[in-house]
Design a protein that fits this description.
alpha/beta; 21 strands; Rossmann fold; Ribosomal Protein S5, domain 2; Rubrerythrin, domain 2; nine-stranded mixed β-sheet; four-stranded mixed β-sheet; 457 residues
């Protein structure tokens, strides 16, 4: 009789050991090891079968043919942009986001539009009737949908059997944390189950050339639930972000083996689903009242250039310790910019509360926002509005210098398209730039005080 083989796996990081360990050597967590049963076909058997079959042989790089029929059009310009031009056959995409942010709505709305692709939508969380109700809200022609198959199942073996029978062209799993396999004894959503299910689905995608979209939960700190190896297994990781109290949603790629990770998709949540925002600048610049202090317009880059409204409020501290609050902007960078403003410009904010907000509920990481943040803070403190028609872009260094920022031509073109008349930019960005082809007036600056003097006198 063959003795059953077992191992112990850390539920936090996926580290495995032959014996139980109190403290994980990898992540340092206590009492996270759980016993799992290993498959009867061990590594030695699989290696010998490969040697016996003789199929594992290398190929010269120049002899490998490249597929140019390439990608599946998702009929969604925002998602196509984030995926790098569409969904590649045989790829595995992990879609993550907070509960209630709209992951299931986005995935179902997308597959409803793929009338030329046979899709299997697997749900481990909802019933078929619930999915039908959502589909009718998103698409009035859902009754006529003959390309979309709905399967409510939690067993991976049953799902693979249905895929073998129906032969779909695309598979959506909602969500990977609810799927379990008989090869692991732990509960659904555990480290072992998530890793085993994701590995087998990856093998299915590569062997059958079927794209698989996995919907994943995230933890309270904002990272994807499950072992870190889950993000290494898949080809693309995209995050669906946004505030549940705000109408805008961002689709951002954090890993993409077949495209850029700098692209950003923007959606607006409406009653009948998600609407693509093709020109976000016009929606984000919606300040109807002119002549207000503490507002500066910045030309930012998040995959593509668009104009953002930076708002700031400076007031006398009501308590002993002044508050520093930033919404949509890095709080630590705000503290650094305030230190530059005080040290290099001589602007005292020690006894002032400073609040900064990026309008529209967006979170921006572009360093070119620095100049607009400082301009908005300065404008609010002296209660003087920035003249209409001015916008800016520039990174601020610790010495108070305005440093060059990337893709300056795209920033200027976006500002010109929206009717801005004056653009404040780093002087270093003028090198090699043909300023004559722009109708907008360019104002190069080298230091922060020079920029503030131009804007507010």
């Amino acid at each position: 009789m063959v003795k059953e083989k077992t191992a112990y796996v850390c539920e936090n990081c996926g580290y495995d050991s032959l014996k139980w360990v109190g403290k994980c050597p990898s992540c340092g967590q206590w009492d996270t090891f759980r016993q799992v049963r290993l498959s009867s076909s061990g590594k030695q058997g699989s290696a010998s079968s490969l040697l016996a079959s003789g199929t594992a042989c290398p190929s010269l790089l120049r002899d490998i043919s490249r597929n140019n029929d390439i990608r599946i059009d998702m009929h969604d310009a925002e998602m196509n942009r984030v995926l790098g031009g569409g969904l590649l056959p045989g790829s595995v995409v992990l879609l993550g986001g907070e509960p209630g942010i709209g992951k299931s709505t986005l995935s179902l709305q997308t597959v409803l539009g793929l009338t030329d692709v046979r899709v299997l939508y697997v749900s481990g969380e909802e019933s078929a009737q619930q999915i039908k109700m959502r589909a009718m809200r998103l698409c009035h022609d859902a009754e006529k949908m003959e390309h979309l198959l709905i399967l409510c199942e939690n067993s991976l073996e049953q799902i693979l059997s249905v895929i073998e029978t129906e032969r779909p062209s695309m598979v959506v799993i909602d969500s990977i944390q609810t799927i379990s396999t008989e090869m692991a004894e732990s509960a659904p959503g555990s480290i072992t189950q998530v890793r085993e299910c994701a590995t087998r689905l990856l093998r299915l995608a590569k062997s059958r050339n079927i794209p698989v979209i996995l919907i994943g939960h995230i933890t309270k700190d904002g990272s994807l639930a499950g072992p870190k190896i889950l993000e290494h297994i898949v080809d693309t990781v995209i995050q669906f972000e946004g505030d549940s109290h705000n109408v805008y949603r961002l689709l951002r790629s954090t890993k993409n083996r077949f495209g850029s990770t700098s692209e950003l998709g923007i959606y607006e949540m409406q009653q009948n689903g998600l609407r693509q925002v093709h020109n976000p600048s016009e929606l984000l610049l919606n300040s109807s009242v002119e002549g207000l202090s503490g507002i500066a317009i910045s030309s930012a880059i998040e995959g593509r250039p668009f104009m953002l409204e930076t708002q700031a409020l400076v007031s006398t501290a009501a308590y002993g310790t002044p508050q520093r609050s930033a919404t949509g902007f890095d709080g630590r960078r705000l503290n650094m910019l305030l230190a530059v403003l005080e040290k290099r410009v001589g602007f005292k904010l020690v006894q002032k509360d400073v609040f900064v907000n990026i309008a529209g509920g967006l979170r921006v990481t572009d360093m070119g926002m620095d100049l607009s943040v400082l301009a908005a803070i300065f404008s609010s403190n002296i209660d003087t509005p920035i003249e209409k028609g001015w916008c800016m872009a520039g990174e601020v260094g610790l010495s108070g210098e305005v440093r060059a920022c990337g893709r300056i031509e795209g920033r200027i073109s976006e500002a010109e398209k929206l009717g801005f008349t004056d653009f404040l930019l780093p002087a270093h960005n003028l090198q090699g730039l043909d300023a004559k082809k722009f109708a907008i007036t360019l104002h190069p600056v080298t230091k922060v005080e020079e920029a503030l003097r131009l804007l507010l006198g």
